[in-house]
Fold this sequence. Notes:
Layout: H1 5-15, H2 27-31, E1 41-45, H3 51-58, E2 62-67, H4 70-82, E3 89-93, E4 106-112, H5 119-132, E5 133-144, H6 148-151, H7 165-171, E6 176-189, E7 193-205
Parallel strand pairs: 1-2, 1-4, 2-3, 4-5
Antiparallel strand pairs: 5-7, 6-7
Amino acid sequence: MEVNPELTRWNSCFGASGYLFGTAPNAFLALQAGRLKAGGTALSIADGEGRNGVWLAGQGLSVTAFDFSPVGAEKARKLAADRGVTQKYTTQITELSAWDWDAAQFDVVAAIFIQFATPAERAHMFAGICRALKPGGLLLLEGYRPEQIAYGTGGPRVPEQLYTSALLKQAFAALEIVELREYDSEIDEGEGHGGMSALIDLVARRPVR
């Protein structure tokens, strides 16, 4: 069987003691709490060790999460149990390319620092996200801008995998943009993300026809 070096790397990272990116939710995601409605459904993409998906479950949403690392998924389940949200949090082990974007629709899709995708993979994923949102559903996305490469504090070092406002506007033209913000800020998210960072945040809503 062919060994996936990226899977090996992430299993190793997630296999260390503690949580690579901490157990608190991403700061941008946490700021969106007022937009969330308990009783809804959420999809958390590449949820890793679960910090974001488990937090969404704690807000009263029924969360489906996925990641390709079984080591990360196991730690996510443990975090969900520790937070008492096991019944509201389900994580699946799958490659991004194998995810069925048409299997279900969600009130919220969380896409936090998912910039491992190539431009072609990203186009497929972004189109899938639009379909996976229910009418009126919210996309909550945070990523790095190209200026992040100079900071060197996390994220890919491939410019094509980073986001600009123009790229996101084009990719999500089918959605209504609620908020699109570019800024630099100090972040502190475990050992995996830390230091001054070039960020871009998007909140967008699928129109109700």
